[in-house]
Amino acid sequence: MDALDRHPRLGVCLDSCHLYVSGVDVGDPAAVAAGLDEFASRIGLDRLRALHVNDAAAPRGSNRDRHANVLEGELGERLGAFIADPRVQALPAVMETPGPEGHGPDAAEVQKLRDLHKRWTRKRRR
Q: Which residue among 19, 24, 54, 108 has the highest number of C-beta atoms inside a 10 angstrom radius?
C-alpha cells in the first residue's frame, strides 16, 4: 500500500485458504476478528473489496495453497467463521473450489456455501 502511495483504487481480497495455510486459523471466530482488526488498523477496512472462499486441502501453516471443496477440507464446517464476521457481509465472494471432478464450483457447491453462511451468521446473532 505504501509503495503505491496508498492509491485510492488499490484494494485487497482476502483468501480463506491462503490465510489458513499461512498459519491464520480462519476457522476460529476470534482469530478472524483479530485478523480483521489488524487489517483495519494497518490497511483500512475500506480497502477490503472481496473474499475468495474455499476450504483448504493442506494443513494450517503448511504454506501449500491447495483448495478443497466447501466442507471437504481441513476447515470443514469451521470455514463458516471466515464468512460470518459482520464486517465482511457486504463484500462479494468468489469461490475458488475445485468443484466436482475438478471442473470448478457448480450450483451444489454454491448452495453448500450459502447454507454454511446461513448457519454461521445465525449462530453469531444468538
A: 54
The answer to whether residue 4 sits within a structural domain is: no
Q: Strand, helix or coil at 95?
A: strand
What stretches of 2-116 adopt beta strand conformation (E)? 12-15, 48-53, 55-56, 67-68, 93-95
C-alpha grid cell, residue 13: 481480497
Q: Within 13 Å and on the Cβ side, how many CA atoms surround 124?
A: 19
Domain with 68, as residue range(s), is 12-125
Select from 124, 100, 121 the least CA-distant residue to 110.
100
Q: What is the largest CA-CA distance in the chain?
A: 43
Would you state the pLDDT for residue 44?
94
In this structure, are residues 76 and 55 in contact, taking their beta carbons and an 8 Å threshold?
yes
Number of domains in the chain: 1
